[in-house]
Protein backbone atom coordinates (compact mmCIF):
# COMPACT_ATOMS: atom_id res chain seq x y z
CA UNK A 1 0.00 0.00 0.00
CA UNK A 2 2.81 2.29 0.86
CA UNK A 3 4.55 1.40 -2.40
CA UNK A 4 1.45 2.38 -4.39
CA UNK A 5 1.21 5.64 -2.49
CA UNK A 6 4.88 6.39 -3.27
CA UNK A 7 4.38 5.60 -6.95
CA UNK A 8 1.40 7.92 -7.17
CA UNK A 9 3.31 10.67 -5.43
CA UNK A 10 6.26 10.23 -7.82
CA UNK A 11 3.95 10.31 -10.85
CA UNK A 12 2.24 13.46 -9.57
CA UNK A 13 5.58 15.19 -9.07
CA UNK A 14 6.70 14.27 -12.59
CA UNK A 15 3.48 15.62 -13.99
CA UNK A 16 3.88 18.89 -12.11
CA UNK A 17 7.51 19.25 -13.22
CA UNK A 18 6.54 18.61 -16.87
CA UNK A 19 3.75 21.15 -16.79
CA UNK A 20 5.96 23.77 -15.21
CA UNK A 21 8.69 23.16 -17.77
CA UNK A 22 6.17 23.44 -20.60
CA UNK A 23 4.89 26.73 -19.17
CA UNK A 24 8.35 28.11 -18.87
CA UNK A 25 9.27 27.11 -22.40
CA UNK A 26 6.05 28.57 -23.78
CA UNK A 27 6.62 31.87 -21.98
CA UNK A 28 10.21 32.00 -23.24
CA UNK A 29 9.08 31.30 -26.80
CA UNK A 30 6.45 34.01 -26.54
CA UNK A 31 9.00 36.47 -25.20
CA UNK A 32 11.41 35.60 -28.01
CA UNK A 33 8.69 36.01 -30.64
CA UNK A 34 7.73 39.37 -29.15
CA UNK A 35 11.36 40.56 -29.14
CA UNK A 36 11.88 39.47 -32.73
CA UNK A 37 8.70 41.26 -33.78
CA UNK A 38 9.75 44.46 -32.03
CA UNK A 39 13.22 44.23 -33.59
CA UNK A 40 11.74 43.78 -37.05
CA UNK A 41 9.42 46.71 -36.52
CA UNK A 42 12.30 48.87 -35.36
CA UNK A 43 14.39 47.86 -38.40
CA UNK A 44 11.47 48.60 -40.73
CA UNK A 45 10.98 52.02 -39.12
CA UNK A 46 14.68 52.81 -39.39
CA UNK A 47 14.83 51.70 -43.02
CA UNK A 48 11.75 53.79 -43.82
CA UNK A 49 13.30 56.83 -42.17
CA UNK A 50 16.56 56.31 -44.05
CA UNK A 51 14.72 55.90 -47.35
CA UNK A 52 12.67 59.05 -46.74
CA UNK A 53 15.81 60.94 -45.78
CA UNK A 54 17.57 59.73 -48.94
CA UNK A 55 14.61 60.82 -51.03
CA UNK A 56 14.60 64.31 -49.50
CA UNK A 57 18.21 65.45 -49.10
CA UNK A 58 21.61 64.08 -48.15
CA UNK A 59 24.37 65.03 -45.77
CA UNK A 60 26.44 67.12 -48.18
CA UNK A 61 24.20 70.03 -49.21
CA UNK A 62 25.68 73.14 -50.86
CA UNK A 63 23.58 76.28 -50.33
CA UNK A 64 23.88 79.23 -52.72
CA UNK A 65 22.02 82.53 -52.27
CA UNK A 66 21.58 85.39 -54.78
CA UNK A 67 20.27 88.72 -53.47
CA UNK A 68 19.91 92.27 -54.80
CA UNK A 69 19.44 95.38 -52.65
CA UNK A 70 18.84 99.03 -53.50
CA UNK A 71 20.01 101.87 -51.29
CA UNK A 72 20.20 105.66 -51.28
CA UNK A 73 23.18 105.83 -48.91
CA UNK A 74 25.60 103.47 -50.64
CA UNK A 75 28.67 103.98 -48.46
CA UNK A 76 26.66 103.63 -45.26
CA UNK A 77 25.14 100.37 -46.56
CA UNK A 78 28.60 98.99 -47.38
CA UNK A 79 29.74 99.81 -43.83
CA UNK A 80 26.67 98.09 -42.37
CA UNK A 81 27.33 95.04 -44.57
CA UNK A 82 30.89 94.68 -43.32
CA UNK A 83 29.77 94.96 -39.70
CA UNK A 84 27.10 92.27 -40.21
CA UNK A 85 29.63 89.98 -41.90
CA UNK A 86 32.09 90.38 -39.02
CA UNK A 87 29.31 89.83 -36.47
CA UNK A 88 28.40 86.41 -37.89
CA UNK A 89 32.05 85.34 -38.47
CA UNK A 90 31.61 85.32 -42.24
CA UNK A 91 34.07 86.75 -44.74
CA UNK A 92 34.10 88.46 -48.15
CA UNK A 93 35.66 86.19 -50.75
CA UNK A 94 35.55 88.68 -53.66
CA UNK A 95 34.13 92.17 -54.19
CA UNK A 96 33.82 94.55 -57.11
CA UNK A 97 32.56 98.14 -57.34
CA UNK A 98 31.68 99.93 -60.59
CA UNK A 99 30.10 103.22 -61.60
CA UNK A 100 27.32 102.90 -64.15
CA UNK A 101 26.56 105.51 -66.78
CA UNK A 102 23.00 104.34 -67.39
CA UNK A 103 22.63 101.50 -64.89
CA UNK A 104 20.63 99.49 -67.41
CA UNK A 105 17.85 102.08 -67.70
CA UNK A 106 16.53 103.84 -70.79
CA UNK A 107 16.62 107.23 -69.04
CA UNK A 108 19.54 108.86 -67.29
CA UNK A 109 18.05 109.37 -63.85
CA UNK A 110 20.48 106.80 -62.46
CA UNK A 111 23.60 108.21 -64.14
CA UNK A 112 26.95 107.99 -62.35
CA UNK A 113 25.68 105.82 -59.49
CA UNK A 114 27.69 103.01 -57.90
CA UNK A 115 27.09 99.28 -57.97
CA UNK A 116 28.81 96.78 -55.71
CA UNK A 117 28.93 92.99 -56.11
CA UNK A 118 30.09 90.81 -53.22
CA UNK A 119 30.77 87.09 -52.88
CA UNK A 120 30.34 86.28 -49.17
CA UNK A 121 31.06 82.97 -47.39
CA UNK A 122 28.80 82.37 -44.38
CA UNK A 123 28.93 79.57 -41.76
CA UNK A 124 25.94 77.36 -42.47
CA UNK A 125 24.55 77.77 -38.95
CA UNK A 126 24.60 81.59 -39.24
CA UNK A 127 22.90 81.97 -42.65
CA UNK A 128 19.40 82.70 -41.36
CA UNK A 129 20.58 85.25 -38.78
CA UNK A 130 22.77 87.07 -41.29
CA UNK A 131 19.97 87.30 -43.86
CA UNK A 132 17.64 88.65 -41.18
CA UNK A 133 20.16 91.38 -40.29
CA UNK A 134 20.56 92.33 -43.95
CA UNK A 135 16.79 92.67 -44.27
CA UNK A 136 16.61 95.55 -41.82
CA UNK A 137 19.91 97.38 -42.24
CA UNK A 138 21.15 97.15 -45.82
CA UNK A 139 18.38 98.82 -47.82
CA UNK A 140 15.41 97.74 -49.93
CA UNK A 141 15.48 94.13 -51.08
CA UNK A 142 14.70 93.77 -54.77
CA UNK A 143 15.22 90.03 -55.33
CA UNK A 144 16.24 86.88 -53.48
CA UNK A 145 16.96 83.37 -54.75
CA UNK A 146 18.13 80.39 -52.65
CA UNK A 147 19.36 77.14 -54.17
CA UNK A 148 20.41 73.83 -52.57
CA UNK A 149 22.63 71.32 -54.35
CA UNK A 150 22.87 67.79 -52.93
CA UNK A 151 26.46 66.62 -53.42
CA UNK A 152 26.18 63.54 -51.19
CA UNK A 153 26.33 60.94 -53.95
CA UNK A 154 29.25 62.64 -55.66
CA UNK A 155 31.07 62.88 -52.33
CA UNK A 156 30.47 59.21 -51.49
CA UNK A 157 31.56 58.02 -54.94
CA UNK A 158 34.72 60.08 -54.73
CA UNK A 159 35.41 58.80 -51.23
CA UNK A 160 35.12 55.19 -52.42
CA UNK A 161 37.61 55.88 -55.21
CA UNK A 162 39.95 57.49 -52.67
CA UNK A 163 39.79 54.38 -50.47
CA UNK A 164 40.50 52.12 -53.44
CA UNK A 165 43.48 54.26 -54.41
CA UNK A 166 44.69 54.29 -50.82
CA UNK A 167 44.68 50.48 -50.70
CA UNK A 168 46.49 50.38 -54.03
CA UNK A 169 49.06 52.83 -52.68
CA UNK A 170 49.63 50.64 -49.60
CA UNK A 171 50.16 47.56 -51.78
CA UNK A 172 52.58 49.42 -54.01
CA UNK A 173 54.56 50.55 -50.98
CA UNK A 174 54.79 46.95 -49.79
CA UNK A 175 55.95 45.82 -53.23
CA UNK A 176 58.46 48.66 -53.31
CA UNK A 177 59.96 47.47 -50.03
CA UNK A 178 60.25 43.91 -51.40
CA UNK A 179 61.57 44.84 -54.87
CA UNK A 180 65.28 44.32 -55.58
CA UNK A 181 65.51 44.81 -59.35
CA UNK A 182 65.99 48.38 -60.53
CA UNK A 183 63.47 48.04 -63.40
CA UNK A 184 60.82 46.81 -60.98
CA UNK A 185 61.57 49.62 -58.53
CA UNK A 186 61.22 52.26 -61.26
CA UNK A 187 57.96 50.77 -62.55
CA UNK A 188 56.51 50.60 -59.03
CA UNK A 189 57.57 54.19 -58.28
CA UNK A 190 55.96 55.48 -61.48
CA UNK A 191 52.73 53.66 -60.72
CA UNK A 192 52.89 54.87 -57.13
CA UNK A 193 53.33 58.52 -58.12
CA UNK A 194 50.38 58.32 -60.51
CA UNK A 195 48.25 56.72 -57.81
CA UNK A 196 49.18 59.36 -55.23
CA UNK A 197 48.51 62.19 -57.69
CA UNK A 198 45.08 60.80 -58.58
CA UNK A 199 44.20 60.27 -54.91
CA UNK A 200 45.22 63.83 -53.99
CA UNK A 201 43.11 65.27 -56.81
CA UNK A 202 40.06 63.35 -55.62
CA UNK A 203 40.76 64.32 -52.02
CA UNK A 204 40.92 67.99 -53.00
CA UNK A 205 37.52 67.65 -54.67
CA UNK A 206 36.00 66.25 -51.49
CA UNK A 207 37.75 68.92 -49.41
CA UNK A 208 36.22 71.56 -51.65
CA UNK A 209 32.76 70.02 -51.17
CA UNK A 210 33.29 70.02 -47.39
CA UNK A 211 34.19 73.70 -47.49
CA UNK A 212 31.17 74.56 -49.64
CA UNK A 213 28.92 72.61 -47.27
CA UNK A 214 30.32 74.23 -44.12
CA UNK A 215 30.21 77.76 -45.62
CA UNK A 216 27.25 78.80 -47.74
CA UNK A 217 27.87 81.32 -50.54
CA UNK A 218 25.96 84.59 -50.79
CA UNK A 219 26.19 86.55 -54.07
CA UNK A 220 25.05 90.05 -53.10
CA UNK A 221 24.47 92.97 -55.49
CA UNK A 222 24.13 96.43 -53.93
CA UNK A 223 22.71 99.15 -56.22
CA UNK A 224 22.91 102.86 -55.45
CA UNK A 225 19.76 104.81 -56.29
CA UNK A 226 18.92 108.51 -56.20
CA UNK A 227 15.54 107.57 -54.74
CA UNK A 228 13.66 104.38 -53.92
CA UNK A 229 10.30 104.35 -55.68
CA UNK A 230 7.56 101.76 -55.32
CA UNK A 231 7.21 99.41 -58.22
CA UNK A 232 3.84 100.04 -59.92
CA UNK A 233 1.60 97.02 -60.01
CA UNK A 234 -1.96 95.88 -60.14
CA UNK A 235 -2.33 96.13 -56.35
CA UNK A 236 -1.30 99.80 -56.23
CA UNK A 237 -4.16 102.33 -56.51
CA UNK A 238 -4.36 104.48 -59.61
CA UNK A 239 -3.64 107.76 -57.83
CA UNK A 240 -0.60 106.26 -56.13
CA UNK A 241 0.70 105.11 -59.48
CA UNK A 242 0.01 108.55 -60.96
CA UNK A 243 1.86 110.18 -58.06
CA UNK A 244 4.85 107.90 -58.57
CA UNK A 245 4.84 108.65 -62.31
CA UNK A 246 4.81 112.42 -61.69
CA UNK A 247 7.64 112.22 -59.16
CA UNK A 248 9.69 109.99 -61.46
CA UNK A 249 9.10 112.36 -64.34
CA UNK A 250 10.23 115.31 -62.22
CA UNK A 251 13.38 113.46 -61.22
CA UNK A 252 14.01 112.55 -64.84
CA UNK A 253 13.72 116.18 -65.93
CA UNK A 254 15.90 117.32 -63.02
CA UNK A 255 18.68 114.91 -63.91
CA UNK A 256 18.31 115.78 -67.59
CA UNK A 257 19.01 119.42 -66.71
CA UNK A 258 22.02 118.34 -64.72
CA UNK A 259 23.30 116.22 -67.59
CA UNK A 260 22.79 119.10 -70.00
CA UNK A 261 24.71 121.48 -67.75
CA UNK A 262 27.54 118.98 -67.33
CA UNK A 263 27.64 118.40 -71.10
CA UNK A 264 27.89 122.14 -71.70
CA UNK A 265 30.77 122.39 -69.22
CA UNK A 266 32.60 119.57 -70.98
CA UNK A 267 31.88 121.07 -74.42
CA UNK A 268 32.66 124.68 -73.43
CA UNK A 269 36.27 124.73 -74.76
CA UNK A 270 35.15 123.27 -78.07
CA UNK A 271 32.26 125.71 -78.26
CA UNK A 272 34.63 128.63 -77.63
CA UNK A 273 36.98 127.45 -80.40
CA UNK A 274 34.04 126.99 -82.74
CA UNK A 275 32.72 130.46 -81.89
CA UNK A 276 36.14 132.00 -82.60
CA UNK A 277 36.31 130.26 -85.98
CA UNK A 278 32.81 131.41 -86.87
CA UNK A 279 33.66 134.99 -85.87
CA UNK A 280 36.82 134.95 -87.97
CA UNK A 281 34.95 133.64 -90.98
CA UNK A 282 32.22 136.25 -90.54
CA UNK A 283 34.84 139.00 -90.05
CA UNK A 284 36.65 138.01 -93.25
CA UNK A 285 33.42 137.87 -95.21
CA UNK A 286 32.32 141.22 -93.81
CA UNK A 287 35.65 142.80 -94.72
CA UNK A 288 35.42 141.48 -98.28
CA UNK A 289 31.88 142.73 -98.52
CA UNK A 290 32.89 146.23 -97.43
CA UNK A 291 35.76 146.28 -99.88
CA UNK A 292 33.50 145.22 -102.69
CA UNK A 293 30.96 147.84 -101.74
CA UNK A 294 33.59 150.61 -101.62
CA UNK A 295 34.85 149.54 -105.02
CA UNK A 296 31.36 149.76 -106.46
CA UNK A 297 30.92 153.22 -104.98
CA UNK A 298 34.23 154.36 -106.41
CA UNK A 299 33.34 152.99 -109.81
CA UNK A 300 30.05 154.89 -109.73
CA UNK A 301 31.87 158.09 -108.79
CA UNK A 302 34.27 157.68 -111.70
CA UNK A 303 31.59 157.12 -114.30
CA UNK A 304 30.59 160.90 -114.77
CA UNK A 305 34.21 161.99 -115.38
CA UNK A 306 34.58 159.36 -118.05
CA UNK A 307 31.38 160.60 -119.66
CA UNK A 308 32.68 164.14 -119.57
CA UNK A 309 35.96 163.07 -121.12
CA UNK A 310 34.08 161.26 -123.83
CA UNK A 311 31.94 164.36 -124.39
CA UNK A 312 35.05 166.53 -124.70
CA UNK A 313 36.50 164.12 -127.20
CA UNK A 314 33.29 164.25 -129.22
CA UNK A 315 33.32 168.05 -129.03
CA UNK A 316 36.90 168.18 -130.31
CA UNK A 317 36.03 165.96 -133.20
CA UNK A 318 33.07 168.15 -134.04
CA UNK A 319 35.29 171.25 -133.88
CA UNK A 320 37.73 169.69 -136.37
CA UNK A 321 34.96 168.86 -138.78
CA UNK A 322 33.54 172.46 -138.90
CA UNK A 323 36.68 174.19 -140.37
CA UNK A 324 36.88 171.55 -143.08
CA UNK A 325 33.29 172.20 -144.08
CA UNK A 326 33.94 175.95 -144.22
CA UNK A 327 37.00 175.41 -146.46
CA UNK A 328 35.00 173.29 -148.86
CA UNK A 329 32.45 175.99 -149.24
UniProtKB/TrEMBL annotation:
Residues 1-30 form the signal peptide. Keywords: Membrane, Signal, Transmembrane, Transmembrane helix. It holds the Pfam family DUF4349. The chain crosses the membrane at residues 263-284. The keyword Calcium does not apply. It comes from the Bacteria. Residues 60-281 form the DUF4349 domain. Residues 293-329 are annotated as: Disordered. This is DUF4349 domain-containing protein.
